[in-house]
Write a structure and sequence with these properties.
The protein has 421 residues and is of the alpha+beta class. It folds into two domains: 236 residues, BirA Bifunctional Protein, domain 2, CATH 3.30.930.30; 137 residues. 50% of the residues lie in helices and 14% in strands. The strands form four sheets. Strands 2-4-5-3-1-10 form a six-stranded mixed sheet, sandwiched between helices. Strands 6-7 form a two-stranded antiparallel ribbon. The longest helix has 56 residues.
Length: 421
């Protein structure tokens, strides 16, 4: 079973496509017309599994123009900047499909969801394209479960239309026809298609505010209700209605991603702390060895200074006629002392020289470790040095996302901004 909170919710989202550029971008994405995508979760090796419930016969814009030419829709009276295209996105969290068997279950679910879309739009003739995406990998769940998990969802691009009756005007020669229906057209109108509706009570009467004004149900709420009720009637009773502003659509994905980001942050922080500690230890060890080296060098110098020089020894004593060397009692005593000190100094010098060599080797080893650790920590240290605010902002953003996700886990706080695929 995939990780889940035990609650699966349906989601229906409507978005406007105001410009032809927006329409073209949606077409490229939905129809997989590009060779590569910035979204790294799109697995093009699985694109063949995408299912068209209605495949486009041409570009979306060309199909729109053909619908006008065929009289299927009308733009009469429409402003130049009016919204002429819309996209419905139907979704359930990834864990729902994974726990129900995956791809085959998703196909059946969205087959029924497409039927709901036809009713919501007002007829299949107003749909330009309807495709279920099965090639977008849920990276977080895949990594967590050790297997590929895909996020199944349905895109429906359509033309928003409403039925409009055209009446005979006063200029009509037959005055008996004035005010009667001249013709009925399907007018392109986003605002009328998604206008708010009056909320009704159980008896079918309009709900009123304390000031006597009618309570309106927003188009988003109506869309969520219609989709949920249709899917429930189709037999999907184990899902709940999505809520406005909820991020439940990708709740499981977000939980995994935030958990992974948090884990990565903790790992990086631990590595940084460990490296900094190792650097401090190495630096302290180098300084300690350097002090020991300086002390040994000082001791060696003092011992060498204390030892009797060859010239001083040669200057002692006087040569007799017989060739012998005579020393004064003072010189003899001094020479004995120097001899003893020289022997001791030689032994001590030998010991110090050996200790000095060991210290030099130890300093070299610690210096090498210090340089290695310094090189490993270099990217982090440079980042902090060059852009401390950005590094701090990155860490703060990760921690903020973690806190927000924890808030989403509380039943009373499951509201935020609308989901994005």
């Amino acid at each position: 079973m995939a990780r889940n909170d035990g609650i699966d919710r349906t989601f229906a989202r409507n978005q406007d496509l105001p410009t032809l550029d927006d329409v073209a971008k949606v077409q490229e994405h939905n129809e997989r017309e590009k060779d590569s995508y910035s979204n790294q979760d799109i697995d093009t090796t699985q694109t063949y599994r995408n299912i068209h419930f209605k495949a486009p016969t041409d570009s979306y814009a060309a199909m729109f123009d053909q619908m006008i030419a065929d009289g299927v829709i009308s733009t009469r009276g429409l402003k130049a900047d009016a919204v002429k295209y819309g996209e419905l996105i139907f979704d359930v969290n990834s864990a729902y499909f994974h726990n129900h068997g995956g791809y085959e279950y998703a196909k059946q679910f969205y087959t029924d969801a497409y039927k709901a879309a036809v009713e919501i739009v007002g007829g299949e003739q107003y749909i330009l394209s309807a495709v279920m995406h099965a090639d977008e990998r849920n990276r977080a769940m895949s990594e967590a479960l050790g297997q590929d998990v895909y996020h199944y969802h349905l895109h429906v691009v359509y033309v928003p239309v409403v039925e409009k009756q055209i009446l005979w005007s006063k200029r009509c020669k037959d005055k008996s026809l004035v005010g009667t229906v001249k013709e009925t057209i399907m007018q392109v109108s986003r605002s009328k298609k998604w206008e708010s509706k009056v909320a009704l009570d159980e008896q079918g009467n309009p709900l009123l505010t304390s000031k006597g004004k009618k309570v309106l149900r927003t188009s988003y709420s109506v869309l969520q209700d219609d989709f949920f009720n249709y899917m429930k009637a189709a037999g999907y009773t184990d899902v709940e209605r999505g809520e406005r502003g909820s991020t439940e659509e990708h709740l499981t994905v977000t939980q995994f991603k935030v958990a992974q980001e948090q884990q990565r942050l903790e790992d990086v922080t631990a590595q940084i702390a460990q490296t900094e500690q190792a650097l401090d230890t190495a630096q302290a060890a180098v300084e300690k060895k350097q002090k020991e080296l300086q002390s040994l060098q000082k001791q060696t110098k003092e011992q060498r200074t204390a030892a009797l020089t060859v010239q001083e020894i040669r200057s002692m004593g006087k040569k007799t006629i017989t060739g012998n060397i005579t020393l004064t009692p003072s010189e003899c005593s001094t020479l004995k002392d120097y001899a003893v000190n020289g022997i001791l100094a030689k032994a001590e010098n030998s010991r110090l020289e050996e200790k000095l060599q060991q210290a030099q080797k130890s300093v070299a080893v610690w210096k090498q470790r210090y340089e290695s650790l310094k090189e490993q920590a270099r990217p982090y240290l440079e980042a902090v040095k060059l852009a401390p605010e950005k590094v701090r902002a990155f860490l703060d953003a990760i921690l903020t996302r973690t806190r927000q996700t924890r808030q989403h886990d509380q039943p009373s706080r499951r509201k935020s901004q609308d989901m994005e695929l």
